[in-house]
């Protein structure tokens, strides 16, 4: 695996080759990754996987025409051919007056922030095996668990480098560690399945395997003997396991591509109230050891903490340079690059600020409702905001969480859901997108 300085040399070299071959502008991204994972089932080793990959992506501009190519063959001859092919493709591409590199005056200069994203990830297979075995053993030890789908542990390290022909070069490395377990409870046709997992940038930050396994087992047992639910309108509590998904639906609606194509249910809502007044949603790329932290975006622009929603008001779109030009705005530092293709947009560590009400209070005020712990399917219309998802969870009766429920559908419209949303005070930072427990009144429940 290449070092960070070698990765910088790779992107510098390909950009120089493109300039020499006749490109007016170009940028390049290099990504290298190595990973190791171990899986076990029923106390026995099931699989060990190790992978290493390197990919170099190049984007060239000839006037207002552009093309993107990528390769995993980093030999000199292959890179020469890659540059020639990219320029030939660009000359035949249609013109796009919005395409281009990020504004030169906006590029990140100086040292990037230190985010402590890399611990080396030099875990041995034996260590990962012990973690996976400990997680599964703890899950199977929960009374009521009858079978296992297995447990796993993994570690990976990646290096990302970006260079542009107009003066930016940046590189960073990051690691990831994780443990998971999935088990079944009950027997015959009444079996229920559930899981638990945790991942972090540093191995020392991952929850103990025993705690992860025990949680998986307890979740599976809690789902046994689900009851039917009568259809109707009622309050819904979104557990933290699934509440971040609602924040995720906001992202697609405020991305530059959705706005320029007019395919967003929030198209005319910039500067308007779209959430309840107590709701604030932030994006923080500088969170130390954050799962989505980054020192710069995919076009070489600096990244800063920002409020997307401030006390319910929509403050900004997520813009790369191309969509910003089309809208007559400035890029927001949310460009994201893969090996091939033009940049898209992606958030960093996105989270909804906690409210002031304990989740127990949100539940305790409900005479009859649903606590959702699992969502199924993709029934969200990004143009209209219509929302309809399969779900499972627990019945709330007279302020108490009682019996498990499954095979229900919850439905509403995201605009109405956002405005009716009440966040609890139990935010935890465990994923790339995080939200506290959420309550939404008046959703339609379709049950038996």
Automatic annotation (TrEMBL):
Tell me which domain of life the UniProt entry assigns to the organism this sequence originates from: Bacteria
The family line of this record is: Belongs to the peptidase U62 family.
**What is the official name of this protein in its record?**
Modulator protein
GO terms for cellular component? cytosol
Q: Which InterPro entries match?
A: Metalloprtase-TldD/E_C, Metalloprtase-TldD/E_cen_dom, Metalloprtase-TldD/E_N, PmbA, TldD/PmbA_N, TldD/PmbA_sf
Q: Which Pfam families match?
A: PmbA_TldD_1st (PF01523), PmbA_TldD_2nd (PF19290), PmbA_TldD_3rd (PF19289)
Metalloprotease TldD/E central domain location is 131-224
What residues does the Metalloprotease TldD/E N-terminal domain cover?
A: 28-90
Q: Name one GO biological process term.
A: proteolysis
Can you name one GO molecular function term for this protein? metallopeptidase activity
């Amino acid at each position: 695996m290449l070092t960070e300085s070698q990765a910088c040399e790779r992107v510098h070299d390909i950009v120089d080759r493109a300039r020499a071959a006749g490109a007016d502008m170009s940028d390049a991204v290099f990504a290298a990754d190595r990973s190791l994972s171990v899986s076990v089932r029923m106390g026995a080793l099931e699989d060990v996987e190790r992978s290493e990959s390197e990919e170099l992506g190049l984007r060239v501009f000839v006037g207002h025409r552009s093309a993107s190519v990528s390769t995993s063959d980093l030999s000199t001859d292959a890179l020469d051919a890659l540059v020639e092919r990219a320029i030939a493709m660009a000359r035949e591409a249609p013109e796009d007056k919005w395409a281009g590199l990020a504004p030169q005056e906006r590029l990140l200069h100086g040292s990037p922030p230190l985010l402590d994203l890399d611990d080396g990830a030099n875990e041995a297979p034996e260590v990962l095996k012990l973690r996976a075995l400990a997680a599964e053993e703890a899950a199977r030890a929960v009374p009521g668990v009858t079978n296992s789908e297995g447990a796993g542990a993994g570690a990976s390290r990646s290096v990302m480098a970006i260079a542009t022909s107009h003066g930016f070069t940046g590189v960073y490395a990051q690691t990831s560690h994780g443990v998971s377990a999935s088990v079944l409870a009950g027997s015959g046709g009444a079996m229920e399945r559930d899981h638990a997992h945790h991942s972090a940038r540093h191995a020392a930050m991952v929850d103990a395997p025993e705690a992860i396994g025990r949680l998986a087992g307890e979740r599976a047992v809690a789902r046994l003997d689900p009851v039917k639910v009568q259809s109707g309108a009622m309050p819904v509590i979104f557990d933290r396991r699934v509440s971040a998904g609602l924040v995720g639906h906001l992202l697609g609606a405020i991305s530059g591509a959705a706005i320029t194509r007019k395919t967003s249910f929030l198209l005319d809502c910039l500067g308007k109230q779209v959430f309840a007044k107590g709701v604030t949603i932030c994006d923080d790329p500088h969170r130390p050891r954050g799962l989505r932290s980054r020192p710069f975006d995919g076009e070489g622009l600096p990244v800063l903490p920002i409020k997307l929603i401030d006390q319910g008001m929509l403050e900004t779109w997520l813009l790369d340079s191309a969509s910003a030009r089309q809208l007559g705005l400035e890029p927001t530092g949310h460009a994201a690059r893969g090996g091939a293709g033009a940049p898209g947009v992606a958030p960093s560590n996105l989270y909804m600020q906690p409210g002031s009400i304990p989740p127990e209070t949100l539940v305790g005020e409900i005479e009859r409702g649903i606590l959702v712990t699992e969502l199924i399917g993709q029934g969200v219309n990004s143009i209209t905001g219509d929302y309809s998802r399969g779900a499972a969870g627990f019945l709330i009766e007279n302020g108490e969480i009682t019996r498990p429920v499954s095979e229900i559908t919850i439905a509403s419209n995201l605009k109405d859901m956002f405005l009716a949303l009440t966040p609890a005070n139990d935010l935890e930072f465990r994923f790339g997108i995080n939200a506290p427990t959420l309550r939404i009144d008046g959703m339609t429940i379709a049950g038996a």
